Amino acid sequence: MYKPNLYSRRAFLASSARAVGGLSLISSVPLLSACGGPGGGEPGTVGSVFNWVPDIEWSSWYLAEEKGYFTDRNVTSKLSHGGPNTPAVVQVLAGGEGNVGLSASELDIIKGNQEGSDFVVVAAMYQRNPLGYTWMADTQIATAADLVGKRIGAPQGDQVQIEAVFKINKLPVDYTFVPMSFDPQPLVDGEMDVIVSYVTNQPIQLELAGHAVKSAPYSDFGLPSYGDILFASKAWIDTNRDLLVRYLAALLSGADDNRADPMEVIPILVEKYGAEAEINEDYAVAANPAYIALMDSDFTNANGLLSVDPAFMESEILPGLVAAGETDLPTVDEFLDTTILKDAHALRA
Q1: What CATH number was assigned to the domain covering residues 131-221?
Q2: For position 185, what pLDDT does the model report?
């Protein structure tokens, strides 16, 4: 019988750290670094803070380090991974540890600023957040309207986002919420019609275990959000802007290489960055193309990888947060700076 991985944001990302079944979590991973080199600009260090353990999700960073792209830009890179007992990335940066944070939600950054921080979004690795729904292949779900009347499984607390999907699509909030533990087996057993999941993780794990499933991110259901949003404090940016531009230029090189050859990073992840985590290689091989598929949009085609569209943020993402019940939201220009990434693209030209 299939023994499922833990079911949560943390667990989904961690499921690559163990083969299906028998998952044990990692509380922390030591910092990894590459020495600065003779590239342009003053030497400097940038600490990247991830929200979970080593995973295929961070492939662009691993390749940028291993292939010397940070060194070429005179950037010393330090990668700090999270774990089940580590604080949120916004808290880590607010405490002065690390320089560039990775967030799974615009709202986390906005909330951090509401609590006194001065965070600024500078880029996003993924144009679509991988959070969404998974369902068995024989269940007919194609649009948000197909969710009406369905049994939706998720951990307690996810009702707000689930109901936001109905509201943003002007649909009746008509569904049966089925509380889930960290075991998705009830989906396989037919006890629910659809579950909240990460489309880059749980459906892949289920497919590797022999189950036919389908999945789609919330963006496909009218509730868009960027994924792996890069942010830093305005104070740090003001004194390190050139360093951040060079850091992003190096990261873009890593992203390009990952897209060109999704297999190149696999031994690097398995043998080095994820060695202590005992990465599930089969999962990593299958998941990397799934992550890469989330990197493109019409906006990135016109403006380059990692670009964030202010108009899309204003017209699509913030209304989704309002539908989820958020109030007192900032204007986009209060927490987004697109000029830094533009300069990074220009530096590579």
Answers
A1: 3.40.190.10
A2: 83
